[in-house]
């Protein structure tokens, strides 16, 4: 079983590590699963700790602060969800996907920068010159001699 599961981690960009807030044992196993994830995956893998069944507040065995504490200590994203009520389920996936996109975009930009720099098309980082991504810059009005603002 272990040999098969480690192959699933290869190439993964993100993981949801889910525990049941009504069953302490599932939370106690989080560190074991986190260790396994980190041993078999890329160090930049986005990992979100998810406490599920938040609709069963009266049966809670794991406090929200406990989940938040382990997430902070291990540098994970954290959220509680209720699959039954469809509460925060989509948000958990969207937050993870957003972070994965951010990381992969930065990698692509850095690779393009290195490629262009090696070809002599761009100055090296730290040379005082900057690359501006026109898709990330918002237009602003500037006051000056030619503007009405």
Automatic annotation (TrEMBL):
Query: Which SUPFAM superfamilies does the record associate with it?
Result: P-loop containing nucleoside triphosphate hydrolases
SMART domains associated with the record: RAB (SM00175), RAS (SM00173), RHO (SM00174)
Looking at the UniProt entry, the stretches that span the membrane are none
Q: One Pfam family of this protein, by short name? A: Ras
Q: Which domain of life is it from?
A: Eukaryota
Name the InterPro entries on file. P-loop_NTPase (IPR027417), Rab_GTPases_membrane_traffic (IPR050209), Small_GTP-bd (IPR005225), Small_GTPase (IPR001806)
Q: Which GO terms describe its molecular function?
A: GTP binding; GTPase activity
The record's listing under NCBIfam families reads: small_GTP
**Its family?**
Belongs to the small GTPase superfamily. Rab family.
- Return the PANTHER family for the record: DRAB11-RELATED (PTHR47979)
Name this polypeptide is given? Uncharacterized protein
User: What is the protein's species of origin?
Assistant: Nymphaea colorata
